[in-house]
Amino acid sequence: MSAKSYYDEGSRFLHANELNKAVEKFSKAIGLDPQMAVDYEGRGVAYDHLGNFEKAILDYNQAIQLNPNSPTIYYNRAVAHYKLQKLDDALEDYLKAAELDPKDIYARINRADILFSLGDYEHAVQEATKAIEINAEASDAYAIRASSLGRLSRFPEAFSDYQKALSLNPQNTGLYLNRGIDYAISGQLELALQDLEIYLGLNPDSPDKEKVEGMIQQLKNDIAAGK
Fold first, then answer.
1. What's the 3-state SS for the chain?
2. For the segment 130-188, what is each residue's pLDDT rounded down to a tens digit?
């Protein structure tokens, strides 16, 4: 069989989620033609899905050496870096993917999400805004930007983004929790109470139920006390 035939078989096994067979076929393709980036990339994806992120990154590294202008390889390597909690490496790779493919909204959204988790709220806002410029209907981008703006005490902008995110994706019930917390921080206790009660009503078995119930009770106490 040719390297191309093994690659095609590997791709079929990968799509069928038969990952060990996919690794085997991609490896045979590499053995016959070690200069094909797609073989390393395919095997990298299979390793990633198997949870072997270190091997995935090694394959992505080789694929990038052979094809340094493929945004998908950088994106996939970013995913593996993220799973290993190598956040700086993930940020760098998502940026490279976004530069190579300016329409890649998820590279921008994922960068925004990582920046938010690192507490870099200003840059998270910037990345989420870039994602929204690519697609004005990107609910996840509005959600991340809303939370980031809230951390920056830019509450009117945050509440506008929360509303937009909810209009685009009403199933994202976590937005009620986040907005409720921001309402409480900004002193809008009645609105905070309303959002937290909606959140619990939609998520009665939430693992954070007791914590949210405690927040609700505190809000009721504060409202009753006229705070």
1. CCHHHHHHHHHHHHHCCCHHHHHHHHHHHHHHCCCCHHHHHHHHHHHHHHCCHHHHHHHHHHHHHHCCCCHHHHHHHHHHHHHCCCHHHHHHHHHHHHHHCCCCHHHHHHHHHHHHHCCCHHHHHHHHHHHHHHCCCCHHHHHHHHHHHHHCCCHHHHHHHHHHHHHHCCCCCHHHHHHHHHHHHCCCHHHHHHHHHHHHHHCCCCCCHHHHHHHHHHHHHHHHCCC
2. 999 999 999 999 999 999 999 999 999 999 999 999 999 999 999 999 999 999 999 99
